[in-house]
TrEMBL record:
UniProt protein name: Uncharacterized protein
Organism: Caenorhabditis auriculariae
Bias (Acidic residues) ranges: 239-263
Highest rank taxon of the organism: Eukaryota
Biased composition (Basic and acidic residues): 264-273
Stretch list, region Disordered: 239-273
Length: 273
């Protein structure tokens, strides 16, 4: 079912085997050990991680534990170093979307506390961080009309709708502007492979953005039109992420006193992301 291509994959395969025997405590401990290493997970390894956390979610009976599992799942996928190639981005964005979707639904059904608005805002800020990275990667890996890139935009727009009580002007503006750009390319290009599916995704993004604005207004929030918003959120989030990563690398160099000439096999930092 899964290909095993490295030492980390061998370790992660143990986690998969543990889920088969329903030893979920062992499975998640194996995942945690793998996540604590400096290995960059490839798509097959990320699928193993997804499988383990999906199994744990299916056996979690308390809302608090569901949310905890989702956060740990997101952290496992997003921990550095990350491989920025098409298969990894395409696979991980779906998993990250599902985890945030689950968090949203659980938050909504839990008893509302005084801290609920802040909790939603904090979750939205984390979504912005996650999808700023994914969208930056998507714009570098795929053309405006390609399905994988539009899938990232669709997922982001669905989360905008689900978090209409916390969504921000700048993110919604980026989504709407990117949607119009894709529509323009699709309408001006004579032949585009999978054009029907691409147009469907553009329509989905448009509907989600429109519904998000309407729902936000019901919450008493007035979001600015895209034309009035400065779209700097991706640049700011990615720049901050790069600065943090550079600081960690400098700290490692200070400790070791030397630099590696080559990165381990299968390890690739995100470079421009």
């Amino acid at each position: 079912m899964f290909s095993v291509t490295s030492m980390s994959s061998d370790v992660l395969k143990d986690a998969f085997i543990a889920t088969v025997s329903r030893d979920y405590e062992k499975a998640v401990n194996v995942i945690r050990s793998a996540v604590s290493t400096e290995h960059a997970f490839n798509v097959e390894e990320l699928e193993l991680i997804d499988h383990v956390y999906s199994c744990i979610l299916n056996t979690s009976h308390y809302d608090e534990s569901l949310i905890e599992v989702c956060w740990e799942w997101i952290d496992a996928i997003e921990r550095r170093p990350r491989i920025a190639d098409p298969r990894v981005i395409s696979s991980s964005q779906l998993s990250i979307y599902y985890a945030y979707h689950t968090i949203c639904r659980v938050q909504e059904r839990m008893p509302k506390r005084v801290t609920y608005p802040q909790t939603r805002t904090d979750t939205w800020n984390r979504i912005t961080q996650s999808f700023s990275y994914l969208w930056k990667a998507a714009t570098q890996l795929w053309k405006a009309y390609e399905l994988d890139r539009l899938d990232v935009l669709c997922s982001w727009s669905y989360l905008c709708l689900q978090f209409a009580d916390a969504v921000t002007d700048d993110v919604l503006s980026i989504i709407e502007t990117s949607m119009e750009s894709a529509r323009s390319v699709l309408s001006s290009t004579i032949v585009v492979e999978n054009s029907h599916q691409a147009n469907q995704r553009v329509c989905t993004v448009e509907r989600n953005a429109k519904d998000c604005r309407a729902l936000a207004e019901k919450y008493g929030r007035k979001l600015l039109p895209s034309s009035l918003v400065k779209q700097e959120v991706i640049t700011e989030v990615v720049a901050a992420d790069e600065e943090e990563e550079a600081a960690e690398e400098d700290e490692e160099d200070d400790v070791t006193g030397e630099e590696e000439d080559d990165e381990p096999l299968g390890k690739k930092r995100k470079e421009d992301l």
